[in-house]
Write a structure and sequence with these properties.
Layout lengths: L26 H31 L6 H27 L7 H35 L1 H7 L2 H18 L7 E8 L2 E8 L7 H31 L7 H13 L2 H43 L9 H25 L1 H36 L8 H10 L3
Antiparallel strand pairs: 1-2
Helix pairs in contact: 1-2, 1-9, 1-10, 2-3, 2-5, 2-9, 3-4, 3-5, 3-6, 3-8, 6-8, 8-9, 9-10
């Protein structure tokens, strides 16, 4: 994955799979790029923040699967903030963030994208264990274990991406109308091929192969064989079988099965979109690794870049469309925020109103309550 700059690689020193904007870009390219970047990044940043908030603030949403979705949301936020927003300034000007900004933003881009790929792989494995090995899942697929795995993913990826602090630098190019600064690679693009293909294999090919195999096994269990009950459901079924009719137990089991199918379908859609939206850019990486000169059509580069941003922005929309729990949690979060704002406004009004009443002196020795009532009705 040659993502060293989704926004600003140098055309001469990069691997040819640049997604930058060059000084000769037309006004049309600039308008389209800025408009789409603002729209996609705005929706994505707001949506991913909501995902993090609803899981952290709701105890019933704190599940192992949702922990991985929080990790994915934070990684997507990192991509949108480190790649999407700098692109808005980069499209109309040269690199304005200096050398420190170049290495840090490049590092964050790689970190966000690699963590998102690892998070997708992690919740795919978790779904496989939960569906195909439901008895073991009671002891393996726990929130505490999920948090430990997520911590390991972030630590490993953070260490892996440190190499980009030493592989990028700012480059100056002299044009007729002045000097243009770009954030690009230090040496020839040919020397970066092992890194590109290592990233391509570890963070795209392997996750997709794992997802293809595991979701195939999950589909066989969910849609062909009877869905096995987990340990808690078995105990509940035995306990209820002594007290209640078998009809109610069957309804509860069917409801649990439907819920697990719904979650699995939602996560499968996330994986499919990850594969499709990253495919144009990944294909460009492979093709340009063997082409000289590389393929650098401006509109296709813009399309690749917007696909990447869309992948980081679309997941909250999928959760809201396919998960009743997430949809209800999003609504509660919005309602609570509105009520909180109204409560603060009401509290402010009451405070001012009370101070005005207190300033009026009581007349004819009236009691405080009577005075407040009279002053309230009297004109200001």
């Amino acid at each position: 994955m040659d993502n060293s700059t989704l926004t600003h690689p140098d055309r001469n020193s990069s691997n040819g799979q640049t997604l930058s904007t060059m000084p000769e870009n037309s006004l049309e390219i600039q308008v389209v790029t800025i408009s789409l970047s603002l729209l996609i990044c705005g929706v994505g940043i707001a949506g991913n923040i909501m995902v993090v908030l609803v899981v952290i603030r709701s105890k019933h949403m704190m599940t192992a699967t949702n922990c991985y979705l929080v990790s994915l949301a934070v990684a997507d936020l990192t991509v949108l903030l480190a790649a999407g927003l700098p692109n808005i300034s980069e499209v109309v000007a040269s690199w304005i963030y200096g050398y420190a900004g170049c290495v840090c933003i490049t590092y964050l881009q790689y970190l966000g994208i690699n963590v998102s790929s690892c998070s997708i792989t992690a919740f795919t494995v978790e779904r496989y264990i939960a569906i195909c090995h439901s008895i073991k899942a009671q002891f393996i697929c726990t929130v505490s274990r999920a948090k430990k795995i997520i911590a390991c993913v972030w630590i490993f990826t953070s260490l892996y991406c440190i190499m980009w602090f030493f592989l990028v630098d700012t480059n100056e190019t002299v044009y007729a109308n002045g000097v243009v600064v770009r954030c690009g690679y230090r040496v020839s693009r040919n020397l970066y091929m092992p890194i590109y293909f290592l990233d391509f294999t570890l963070f795209y090919v392997v996750p997709l192969i794992v997802a293809l195999v595991l979701y195939g096994l999950i589909a066989r269990i969910l849609f062909r064989d009877p869905l096995p009950m987990n340990l808690s459901e078995q105990r509940l079924s035995i306990h209820q079988g002594r007290r209640q009719s078998s009809v109610k137990v069957s309804c509860r089991a069917n409801s649990a099965a439907a819920s697990r199918k719904q979650v699995t379908k939602m996560l499968a859609v996330v994986v499919v979109l990850f594969a499709l939206l990253w495919m144009p850019y990944r294909t460009l990486v492979v093709v340009n690794s063997f082409m000289d000169p590389p393929y650098l059509d401006t509109w296709f580069l813009l399309f690749c870049r917007m696909c990447i941003y869309t992948n980081s922005a679309v997941n909250p929309i999928i959760y809201n469309a396919m998960s009743q729990k997430f949809r209800a949690a999003f609504k509660r979060l919005c309602v609570c925020k509105c009520r909180s704002d109204q409560g603060r406004a009401g509290k402010s009004n009451v405070t001012v109103y009370y101070s005005v009443i207190k300033d009026f002196p009581s007349e004819n020795g009236m009691k405080k309550h009577g005075s407040m009532k009279t002053d309230t009705l009297s004109p200001a």
